[in-house]
Design goal:
Elements lengths: L7 E5 L3 H12 L5 E7 L36 E6 L3 E5 L4 E4 L2 E4 L2 E4 L3 E3 L11 E3 L3 H10 L6 E4 L3 H12 L4 E4 L7 H4 L1 H13 L3 E3 L4 E6 L6 E5 L4 E4 L1 E4 L3 E3 L15 E2 L5 E3 L2 E3 L4 E5 L4 E3 L4 H20 L11 E6 L2 E7 L6 E6 L7 E7 L2 E8 L2 H8 L21 E5 L13
Parallel strand pairs: 1-2, 1-7, 2-3, 7-20, 9-16, 10-11, 10-16, 11-12, 18-21
Antiparallel strand pairs: 4-5, 5-6, 8-17, 13-14, 14-15, 19-20, 21-22, 23-24, 24-27, 25-26, 25-28, 26-27
Length: 427
């Protein structure tokens, strides 16, 4: 750019989406001021997928999982750590940070999610959620005493944490609120496979159970875990994997629609100067013909890049493109990689094939009205990613790059009740 760029862009959120927005603005040559409000963790951005896996297992340190620092040249970057955006005045295009109002030409909302922790479980010694580096470090600090661990919740975070703790030789009990671990995320077939893997590695599971009370005695003493059927158990460590809630509190009263995250248009724009990306963004995905909010790591970076492209299109007088994406996530447990592409919400048919030819590892595809909408498998990266290329917009004919369906012998075809996947962050 010629001359001094006087524009100011505020990036709210210090995780992957915010980091990607800052990096992408620099890559595109933006030379105005970028104010990056990174939140209250007071640490540099890091890779969250490692928290419940390699970091929990002691294979990686905090330094190992840090994201690269954004380039120092290009835009004028001001980093604000240790505090959150407190309020958005959308009519005046400004945000309140601490006691300072910061005016902006564009705002990127990337504040993500916070762990869901019932109030009566908060502050108990030995009881932890797992959403941040500090959470994971607090759990790791207890592992030297070899405590019996109870993991409450069996979505992605709960299942990964149970697998990591068991790999370290700890006695682990996994409390599954539904019928099967990860069922709300990957469906019945892979949920059953996941349950069998936990059992084969020595994890005790408690199915269709709800924890009603946690009570701790003296510091370092056992925690009593009470269930809705009247049963109790004891643990030295309790990890809560009960999902997360959108970090939208600071946006109340701003005029944005916060009914489920930040509602955006297809280009990820919430209003003319405000964009959203990552876990918090709720947008109409033309690939699936409906609104969605995706809490997976790969989505955060992809949306952040797209949000910057949409803003750039506005600046250059171009039409903003729609974010038409096929969601993807993975989970590593006991040396196995679970992967899923697509969006299985509302499916009416499931087909199960053998990923390895012996029926031991299922490859599952989901259909709605005869159209492929999702696929999931275990240690079947090539097959799952080929399936991803077959998921396309309903009004678009498959192109030459879509590729054939993976070969495989169908072992069962079933028509099931519609599956509604849960919203669990891959960490």
């Amino acid at each position: 750019m010629v001359g001094t760029d006087t524009r100011t862009i505020v990036v709210a959120g210090g995780s992957l989406a915010g980091h990607t927005v800052v990096t992408e603005l620099d890559r595109r040559g933006f030379t105005g001021e970028v104010v990056w409000v990174r939140g209250d963790e007071s640490v540099s951005p890091y890779s969250k997928p490692a928290l419940s896996k390699e970091f929990m297992q002691g294979k990686l340190t905090a330094g190992d999982i840090s994201l690269p620092a954004p380039p120092a040249d290009g835009s004028r970057l001001r980093v604000i750590d240790g505090t959150l955006c407190a309020r958005l005045d959308a009519d005046a295009d400004r945000v309140l940070v601490g006691d300072e109002w910061i005016s902006f030409d564009a705002l990127f909302i990337c504040t993500g999610m916070r762990a869901r922790v019932p109030a009566h479980f908060t502050g108990l010694p030995g009881v932890h959620s797992l959403r941040t580096l500090a959470d994971a470090a607090a759990i790791r600090a207890q592992l030297d005493s070899r405590p019996r661990a109870v993991v409450v919740g069996a979505g992605l975070i709960g299942s990964e944490t149970a697998a990591s703790l068991r790999s370290l030789g700890l006695p682990v009990e996994l409390v599954v609120q539904g019928r099967l671990p990860m069922e709300a995320v990957v469906g019945e077939e892979l949920g059953r496979f996941c349950l069998e893997r936990h059992h084969s590695h020595g994890v005790t599971t408690r199915l269709s159970a709800t924890v009603t009370e946690l009570s701790a005695g003296r510091a370092g003493g056992p925690i009593t875990v009470a269930f809705d059927d009247g049963a109790t158990t004891e643990a030295g460590l309790v990890v809560l994997g009960l999902g997360a809630t959108t970090a939208c509190g600071w946006l109340e009263g701003s005029g944005l629609d916060l009914s489920d995250g930040v509602l955006c248009d297809a280009s990820l724009r919430a209003r003319p100067s405000v964009f959203a990306a990552g876990d918090i963004a709720n947008w109409p995905n033309p690939v699936f013909g409906g609104r969605m909010r995706v809490e997976h790591w790969s989505n955060a970076s992809a949306q952040a890049r797209h949000a910057v492209e949409s803003w750039s299109a506005d600046q250059e007088g171009r039409r903003r493109p729609a974010f038409a994406d096929v969601p993807y996530f993975w989970s590593d447990q006991y040396g196995l990689k679970y992967q899923m592409v697509g969006h299985a919400r509302g499916h009416d048919e499931v087909r199960v094939e053998s990923a390895g030819g012996d029926g031991a590892r299922p490859l599952v595809t989901y259909y709605r009205d005869g159209r492929l909408v999702a696929a999931a498998g275990v240690n079947a990266t090539r097959a799952v990613m080929r399936m991803k290329s077959r998921i396309h917009c309903p009004d678009r004919e498959p192109g030459p790059g879509d590729g054939p369906l993976p070969s495989g012998r169908p072992t069962r075809t079933a028509v099931t009740s519609p599956h509604v996947p849960g919203r669990e962050k891959t960490t």
